[in-house]
UniProtKB/TrEMBL annotation:
Positions of transmembrane segments: 94-116, 128-149, 306-331, 343-365, 377-401, 407-429
GO cellular component, one term: plasma membrane
Originating organism: Erwinia sorbitola
Domain of life: Bacteria
Name used for this protein in its record: Oligosaccharide flippase family protein
Subcellular location as annotated: Cell membrane
Predominant location: membrane
């Protein structure tokens, strides 16, 4: 272990993770406070409608948007390592153009689909117009260029500030809505405003950092002309877009599917369980955010990035087991305290999903390693197979076993995802010497 932590890349990754972790602990607590106020301030049906509206907007955003943050890290980090600022500017401009285009398509698509899906989602006439309002947030949800810029520039401290600000605003607004008895309208307006302000902060931070390193004009949307100067740009963004759209159907859309099959009340229970799952899986997410930029500074033909991935997976898996144990001990009283006894069934769902926490944390480096090796299509194939199996399980088990069946389906989907991604990851490692990748000047060649 002492040898592990002598690795500068691992130390940098842990430092950045600590930045994000400090804000995420606060964010998780504030998020639970907001959900607690919403759960206690409304009936289970109204709470479920609020969850469905938010999940619908996020699902549309996740399904349409390009993973531009991954594109900025994949192509922009080596450009910065070789001090090629023009190349980095082109990468940001192309990424920004994709964000604008996908945002427009997503908001129009979400609004056009909503009249046909509102009845299936269990939304009444008043809820429908609130859902329409919430759809206007989709462009800010679909934009990830600023997060890519901040990760490539190693400004995880600014990401941490933004991640703490949004739940802080949501929690304050939810407390006001609860004690002021503003009902459904008060909560949804509060959640809307916190998302809008939080998304704007990302762009402000990114623009400020670009000016700091004397890059001007990068935040001008460009597509086709710039793409011709970035070899493999379209292949990368389309592959990652499709992979993330599939991920969206498997994860973000899960609450929507549960709402359609079992109703808003069941969707609310499943959302509480998913919130606990997201909170307990935070260490792996934080490690991934700092892991990807670090390995993009390394030569994929050497063992160094692969060993970093193995060590990071073992570290995350150990944390996952500790977190799962903590959830078993404090989960039930915490749900009773935060949400009330009427939502206590969510604890049973959490117990079913605990194993998925450890599995997903062990497998977190695989996506980044495959992208580093230029094997994004292999990752797409693994995601596609795992997601089709998961959606099939979700529909079937929810129908026969209710909301508990949905939790078992989620566990199965996570296990399939990690196992199927492991196959191309091992193959890429064994053939790493054959990787025909150009390593820019300044990238560590160890």
């Amino acid at each position: 272990m002492k040898h592990w932590f002598s690795d500068g890349a691992l130390r940098t990754m842990i430092r950045n993770t600590a930045f994000l972790g400090s804000s995420n602990v606060v964010s998780a607590l504030l998020g639970l406070l907001a959900l607690s106020c919403a759960g206690k301030g409304m009936s289970p049906e109204m709470f479920g409608s609020l969850v469905v509206i938010q999940s619908y907007a996020k699902a549309i955003s996740d399904f349409i948007k390009f993973q531009t943050w991954q594109f900025v890290v994949q192509y922009g980090t080596p450009a910065l390592a070789s001090n090629n600022l023009q190349r980095f500017s082109d990468v940001v401009s192309f990424s920004f153009g994709l964000d604008i285009t996908s945002g427009v398509v997503a908001v129009l698509g979400g609004m056009l689909l909503l009249p046909f899906l509102s009845h299936s989602l269990g939304l009444g006439a008043n809820d429908f117009w609130f859902a329409m309002l919430y759809c206007t947030l989709i462009p800010s949800m679909a934009a990830s260029t600023p997060t890519g810029i901040l990760r490539a520039l190693d400004r995880f401290d600014l990401i941490a500030i933004q991640q703490a600000t949004k739940p802080f605003l949501r929690a304050i607004g939810s407390v006001i809505a609860y004690f002021g008895d503003y009902g459904f309208a008060g909560f949804i307006i509060t959640w809307y405003a916190s998302n809008l302000i939080g998304g704007t902060m990302y762009w402000w931070f990114a623009a400020r950092e670009l000016r700091r390193i004397n890059i001007h004009g990068a935040l001008r949307p460009r597509l086709f002309n710039v793409a011709q100067r970035i070899e493999g740009a379209w292949n990368f963004v389309w592959t990652t877009n499709i992979a993330h759209s599939i991920w969206s159907a498997r994860n973000t859309c899960s609450t929507v599917f549960v709402g359609i099959i079992l109703g808003p009340a069941a969707a609310g229970l499943f959302k509480i369980a998913m919130t606990f799952f997201d909170v307990t899986g935070t260490p792996a997410k934080l490690l991934e955010k700092s892991f990807y930029p670090e390995i993009m500074r390394l030569d994929p033909r050497t063992k160094k990035p692969w060993l970093l991935g193995l060590r990071s997976a073992l570290l995350a898996g150990t944390l996952g087991m500790l977190v799962a144990l903590a959830v078993v001990v404090i989960g039930k009283p915490l749900i009773s305290l935060v949400f009330g006894y009427k939502y206590l069934m969510a604890y049973n769902l959490i117990l079913i999903m605990l194993s998925a926490i450890v599995v997903s944390m062990l497998g977190f480096p695989q996506e980044s390693l495959l992208f580093m090796a230029g094997k994004q299509r292999a990752f797409l194939a693994a995601q596609s197979i795992a997601s089709v199996c998961y959606i099939t399980l979700l529909i079937a088990l929810s129908h026969f076993f209710g909301v508990s069946g949905a939790a078992f389906a989620y566990l199965g989907g996570q296990c399939l995802d990690v196992l199927l991604s492991l196959i191309p990851t091992l193959r890429a490692y064994n053939n790493r010497h054959l990787l025909n990748l150009r390593v820019p000047e300044g990238v560590v060649n160890d």
